[in-house]
Specification:
The complex is a heterodimer of chains A (260) and B (76). Chain A is an alpha/beta fold and 260 residues long. Chain A has nine helices and ten strands. In chain A, strand 1 and strand 2 form a beta hairpin. A five-stranded mixed β-sheet of chain B has the order 2-1-5-3-4, with no helix packed on it. The model of chain B has no long low-confidence stretch (mean pLDDT 86). Classes of the chains: A alpha/beta (260), B mainly beta (76).
Chain lengths: 260, 76
């Protein structure tokens, strides 16, 4: 069982709620995924179309809502969004996201650390989205982050876990859960992160823009489960030297010399 | 000055970044009602300060105020 800030999660798949074709598809995909944590964003109400309310679509289901600070370009903007998120959700969960460059959407490490320090002191449960930097992960952990969320690859790119070498170091060092976030484009990417020992993965685009988002959500659920089970089972070491799977002894070498 | 009392006055506020004129609006409650927004679906900032829902009726709006009305949307 995964525990973050005292809350237990039996599913290690977290879902983002952006870019779905409709609220109904989103709700069905979330249900098919079995996830218990969903992210949401904060935006100005569209006064031309005020009935578009995601929370009514998600209903009264028992999800932990993880509001993000997407759109924030520095610590001050993220903190302002955090306060709005807490007022809107009535909870202190927060995915801290500080992305000054709209082209890459890469997280600003300095501003993210500053905002983490301040928001933890204000009682927020902070899960910072971060580049896959092992030193930064330790600093965020020391600042009181409830989990760290290193990126696999930039948001929405579906490139997979390009940062695997560093994510493995982060996992080895972490005392808080490690959630691989962003860029996970296929169930195999999610399984790969879980096999490495990630505590959870957060997926959005790969599911929401799939031909059949509900089926894709179910596929991701299986992949996360498989990857986690493989990690627990203990995977063999990689080797450059071949090692026969069939027995070395008892070969019929006299009759079938080519087997010798 | 009217002998019938204060005439309804137009007030200009910056609502979600747009300068907007309102007639007969004096509180946040009245603004939300005018916009047909349910109180429990939004968060309101007045001049960058979050206003608690139980204060919407008592919070007066004034000329030139900046109001942000925010809600959750889909996001990753």
């Amino acid at each position: 069982m995964l525990t973050i800030a005292g809350t237990e999660f039996s599913s290690r798949l977290f879902l983002g709620t952006g870019k779905f074709s409709s609220s109904a598809v989103m709700a069905s995909a979330i249900e098919a995924s079995g996830c218990q944590m969903v992210t949401v964003a904060l935006r100005r109400v569209d006064l031309e179309n005020p009935d578009d309310d995601i929370m009514s679509a998600l209903g009264q289901r028992e999800y932990t809502f993880l509001p993000n600070t997407s759109g924030a370009r520095n610590a001050d903007e993220a903190i302002r969004l955090a306060h709005l998120a807490r007022a809107a959700s009535g909870s202190s969960w927060l995915k801290l996201e500080v992305t000054p460059d709209p082209r890459t959407l890469l997280p600003d490490p300095v501003e993210t650390l500053i905002a983490t320090e301040k928001l933890v002191k204000e009682g927020f449960i902070v899960l910072p989205y971060m580049n896959a930097d092992p030193i930064l992960a330790l600093k965020l952990q020391d600042a009181g982050a409830a989990a760290v969320m290193p990126l696999g690859s930039p948001i929405g790119t579906n490139q997979g876990v390009l940062t695997d070498f560093q994510v493995e170091i982060i996992i080895d060092q972490a005392r808080v859960p490690v959630v691989v976030d962003a860029g996970i484009g296929a169930p195999s990417h999610a399984a790969y992160a879980m096999e490495m020992g990630a505590d959870a993965v957060l997926v959005n685009t790969a599911i929401s823009i799939a031909g059949d988002p509900v089926a894709m959500a179910a596929a991701f659920a299986k992949a996360v489960e498989a990857g986690r089970t493989a990690y627990i089972a203990g995977m063999g070491q990689r080797s450059k030297q071949a090692s026969a799977s069939s027995p070395e002894s008892g070969k019929l070498s006299s009759d079938l010399g080519f087997l010798a | 000055m009217s002998i019938l009392g204060q005439a309804p006055s137009a007030m200009n506020i910056t609502l979600n970044g747009n300068k907007t004129d309102f007639d007969n609006i004096s509180t946040i409650s009245e603004l939300l009602e005018n916009l047909d927004l349910a109180v429990d679906s939004v968060v309101v900032e007045l001049n960058t300060k979050i206003i608690q829902p139980d204060s919407y009726g008592a919070t007066q709006l004034g000329e030139g105020d900046g109001v942000e009305i925010i809600r959750f949307v889909g996001g990753g």
